[in-house]
Amino acid sequence: MALTTSLVGRVQNTSLPKSHSLLPLLEAVVNGLQAIDARFGSDTGQGRLQVTIERSGQDEFDFGPSGPGRAALKRIVGFAVEDNGVGFTSDNMGSFETLDSDYKAEMGCRGVGRLLWLKAFDRILIRSAYKNEDGDLCTRQFRFSVDREVEHIEPPDGFSDTGTVVHLNGFKDSFQRNAAKTVEAIAREVFEHCIWYFLRPGGAPEVTVVDDDEVVSLNKLMDGFVFSGLPTTTVTIKGKKFDMTNLGLKSSTRNPTPRLYWCAANRVVMEENLTGKIAGLYGRLKDDTSAEFTYVCYLSSDYLDAHVRADRTAFDIDERLGGTLLDEDISLEDIRSGVLQEVERLLSEPLAAARNEGKARVNEFVSNRAPRYRPVLSRLELLGVTVDPSIKDPDLELLLHRNLQKLEAEAIAEGQAVFAEAGSAPLEEYQERLNRYLDAVKDINQSDLAAYVSRRRVILDILFKIIRMNGQGKYSREDAIHSLLMPMRTDSDEIGSDASNLWIIDERLAFHDYLASDKTLKSMPITGSESTKEPDIISTRLVDTPVLTAEGETMPLPSIVVVEIKRPMRNDASEDKDPILQSLDYVKRVRSGGVLTASGRPIPASQDSPAFCYVLADLTPTLVSRCEYANLRRTHDGLGYFGFNESAKAYIEVLSFDRLINAATERNRAFFDKLGLPSS
């Protein structure tokens, strides 16, 4: 019993990703090029092929890009592909009417191109002229659609020579929206898909893409495309040969990405980005004259021809092999690995130059912007870390940080392994491995310290900018300074110890039992106070406790630190708005508020808890007046006041913002100098 085939079913089961929306057009172009080859053989110069873009005549404009002085583009409704090839001979017509025909199998054809036409277009009209066995010129014309399949109609007039015109009509919206819109983009896609015809000995026929009065010649595009023809090479993978057509594209090429094109049946099937897959292969390279070029490779093989999928968008080849497959099986990973090794050999000199530029870029960045990576730089190089010389600072920072994390993870794993072998491995081998581990840990710890110091430099720079007048002649609100010192509306139960920058005021503030920022006294568990007043920052610290006490249950009583922050150049200090008196009032309330530890345990009442009050504000006339009223003494540099209030048993220091920054910078100067950071 004969089997029948449903065209409707075959079209439905044919895959055409939206990312390949122009593939049906490209198939028609390849058919035309093959017809030209069949007629002229190696004398391809006599061949002609033209692609005409057909747009809607209605005033429905596409949102595609339009050039200066050019109207918005109307939507594409179809294409016409015209060639002067051999035409639709009887053999070609018979092949067209046979699904899955093997008529052109030796050229890698699968007989599915016309199914792709119906996937993206509503109907196809084909007009053709050919010579019969007697050499007479004959014509034929037929429609092709899902509903009516092949429908022969009256033969056309107007042909004086052999050739074919394929009209792809009714471009379906779902594909039209995802396809290229401009004549330049469409011409480039046709060119890259059919580039083998331009690279082969003898070259390609004349191919043009026409959009109204705009004409793009693909042959001229070829001339402006290739910078230098690199040697064609061959790699052998498990006994199978793969040909590499290597090209250096001109620096004017819009896409500077190094690429590998996987080809089959003289067509591009897949495009792969090679960026970073070889050390130094990033964007454009330079030849021995410092001229820039972009590397691309067109990979072809009988093996790829035999394993391309019917829709020609991928290969029936595993990405990588599992342990159960035969040794002679080849994976995409096997092929890629062999190709990359050959590319590295072929481009050894340009790649070496690019790696040196990338190394210089990293050294410059680390020296000037990120000294934390200097202790581990040599170890990062051993990891094979290379960068694009044009990489932006944020991207470079992320790259170095990710690889530093790898180093830290490896060090942890190595440490666990080293200590697990203690006493079992030979002493000499164990000592050598232990020393390597300790060296790695030392470098990583130095990197952490460098990061900590660098962060301090950045914080001081930010504070320096915040206290200055902006372009509108105004000063930042105190909120900005407040948040820099410590996040607002938070306490030490909500943030980590490294989230605040109170070291700017006093290094000792890093060691506190409880610290709150801009929260009411009533909301602080350490006070038991009912007051809704908000000190800017309040801290308690256990006396003679040299480290952070998380639970806060060690006695004697804690010390109290209050920080008040005022807006830069604020000049409204008065008896009612006296930041010194406000600080002392907060101290009094804490001392008499039924103090609890962070864990809720009561602390014995005492009016003698040491107290320190810091007022951060510019020394405006009204604030100077309040300092003098409080009987405070001026500092030697004239940028602050200090003194001890006997009745309140509190040390008071008023610091201008300039003194605050100067003092913090001086305390950290030795560290900044060690890392090569500016200290002023």
Brief synopsis:
The protein is built from 18 helices and 23 strands. By secondary structure, the protein is an alpha+beta fold.
Shape: elongated
How many helices?
A: 18
Sheet bearing the most strands, described?
A: 8 strands, mixed
Q: What's the total number of strands? A: 23
Q: Could you say which structural class the secondary elements and strand pairing correspond to?
A: alpha+beta
What is the strand content?
Answer: 15-25%
Helix content: 25-40%
Distance between the termini: 94 Å
What does the average pLDDT come to?
Answer: 78
Taking Cα atoms only, what radius of gyration do you get, to the nearest Å? 38 Å
Q: Which stretches are low in confidence, meaning pLDDT under 50 for 5 or more residues running?
A: 103-110, 492-496, 517-531, 541-556
Strand order of the biggest β-sheet: 5-4-3-6-2-1-7-8
Keywords: ATP-binding, Nucleotide-binding
Protein name: ATP-binding protein
GO molecular function: ATP binding
Structure, explained:
With 680 residues, this protein is α+β, with helices and mostly antiparallel strands. Helices cover 34% and strands 21% of the residues. The strands form 3 sheets. The chain has an 8-stranded mixed beta sheet. The chain has an 8-stranded mixed beta sheet with strand order 16-17-18-19-20-23-22-21. A hairpin with a 5-residue loop joins strand 3 (121-131) and strand 4. Helix 13 runs antiparallel to helix 14 (427-466). The protein is elongated. The N and C termini lie far apart (94 Å). The model is unreliable at 103-110, 492-496, 517-531 and 541-556 (pLDDT under 50).
